[in-house]
């Protein structure tokens, strides 16, 4: 045996042992996280599954727990998410494309990139305070669905930008070089080649951002969302010309997390069951949005042949 061979084998064995221990620790932490999530979900199901009747989705909140529903809450959540997606999706994707494909490499771009990355970690209450001073008081948008959607849109905007940049960065540079070699312009390369290959990652980031936004409470409370509302905003679509109604944007609102907060603060145990049922609906809706992201990513990758 050559000198030093034994020491080398001992070192390799120690490294393999460390790898096995690290893998085991990671798997244990993953299983514990899944166990905690499953326990919380089962607890919500046990407490609130009996309340998941059609009337629970079609009734307004009430002072009587047995007659209370989440109609105004889930409608408000859907409308707020529509405004959030309309505000964050085009701006975030466009900003990600510009930073990755068009922005010059200078100090200004570096400052923008650092700020975008830092904004992704800002607490959500800060966005609520910003919206309260800027949107509610300065622009006089009031405590409305539009204000809530723009607030949550600002909150998830850094997530959309970062996910867009990562998805674009994953596209091989050879695809761009081949398109440029055939005489395509930068915009044609971006539109016809880069975006189709990166759409799966972009959609995943967008839906994950929306999944985070739908469960936020602090910024919504800060801008003045109602805790009890027994009416619906005007319908976005009407039966008379011009068939599109924008009055709902300025309407008062509530969302599912706020309705849960209202019920959980009541001393009556029956309201606790209502809160658990609303939480179960919110968890299912979040899981559905994440499942949609996985499905869209699968479909987008299936259409692409490298």
TrEMBL record:
Cellular localisation: Cell inner membrane; Cell membrane
Domain of life: Bacteria
Keyword Nucleotide-binding part of the UniProt annotation: no
Membrane disposition: Multi-pass membrane protein
Record keywords, A-Z: Cell membrane, Membrane, Transmembrane, Transmembrane helix, Transport
Span of domain ABC transmembrane type-1: 74-293
Gene Ontology process terms (BP): phosphate ion transmembrane transport
Example GO molecular function: phosphate transmembrane transporter activity
Bilayer-crossing regions: 25-50, 71-99, 119-137, 144-162, 194-214, 221-244, 275-296
Coiled-coil intervals, chain numbering: none
Gene3D superfamilies, alphabetized: MetI-like
CDD domains from the UniProt entry: TM_PBP2
Pfam families per the UniProt record, alphabetical: BPD_transp_1
Gene Ontology CC terms: plasma membrane
Family: Belongs to the binding-protein-dependent transport system permease family. CysTW subfamily.
Protein name per Swiss-Prot or TrEMBL: Phosphate transport system permease protein PstA
Organismal lineage: Bacteria, Pseudomonadati, Pseudomonadota, Gammaproteobacteria, Lysobacterales
